[in-house]
């Protein structure tokens, strides 16, 4: 019998925005280590492939003042993941780190160290930024022009991989007499000259247990798709409706082959939220309640302010959408929140079309368009939805999160995971020792590094 395609599962800790119901009494801290530990251990109990940590580099602002809709605080990614390496054994540890504001040598060293500490479980979600607001924390002038962000990211990733490959097998010898390690002459030597970086020296960390940490990316634009298909091991897909997801899946695999790779060398993973109930109706009622909690009147105003780009403090969210056009040329009213659309007028037009078609209030439009609970129903129904999506060519798995931190994932692991295992779509136990093993990814061949004449 042919083995069913195995579902890849990642777990994420809910963000610091309205999607997380941080005001509920049962909600825990998003800063204390116990929350990260609980989520990671729950994911490992459910045989998830990895734990995913997003990144917030600046506190969001609304009209020049700190958001009062967000939880404030985001600990350093590497510190959290290194701590989780000590309390887990098999779970991959994926961190979002910005290539625009970090230097390749430092990135390579940090991820290589994490890979050694965890026994081969590190992953880098590489992102870019052209946001001057965030960039103020990092560099004079704030940011790179949009046209240069992929150029820097591509060269940064290439250089990081050069550094990871700078140590070859057998180049480190143990001196038994002294008990010290002795490096051969060329170990770690590198030299790189390019448009963004000119660096040379010796890398300080040996080649990691999985050859190279896993690379995660997201790419929707033409440039982003080409970059991700050519250089990433897994891609965060934005599509959760099967026809769109199938088209994206096919397109990325085609681009991977065009870049000289095998189609299975790239895994596609959309995000997925869930709501469970003992009956489908109970789950639907609960999902409606969750969405209403996620979009309070104030949250609705803030989300609409990202579209209209003006202060909507006096706007009634239980009435119609604003009739005036967005302030396209004004400075951003909301800082630190990524815009889902670049054409604000077109975005507003689509929201008005939804309002007219479904006869909704402004707040109901926000609930309809800005929230996501893709998988709703009994555990049996949700397990079937996930399995059918993957087996139907929509993705290779999902990044699963919950509206409740840190215990929301428990329900999924206790009720849905056993059903996926019964279907033969999810492992009963870990089969490999590294994240690459468990994801079914090849170990990258070591490429020859350009070495300097002398260091």
Automatic annotation (TrEMBL):
Annotated Pfam families: Bac_luciferase
Matches recorded under InterPro entries: Diverse_substr_monoxygenases (IPR051260), Luciferase-like_dom (IPR011251), Luciferase-like_sf (IPR036661), NTA_MOA (IPR016215)
Signal sequence range: none
Record-annotated Luciferase-like domain positions: 30-394
Gene Ontology MF annotations: monooxygenase activity
UniProt keyword Coiled coil present: no
Keyword set, alphabetical order: Flavoprotein, FMN, Monooxygenase, Oxidoreductase
Record EC number: 1.14.-.-
Family to which this protein belongs: Belongs to the NtaA/SnaA/DszA monooxygenase family.
Cited NCBIfam families: FMN_nitrolo
Name of the molecule in the record: NtaA/DmoA family FMN-dependent monooxygenase
Species name: Cellulomonas edaphi
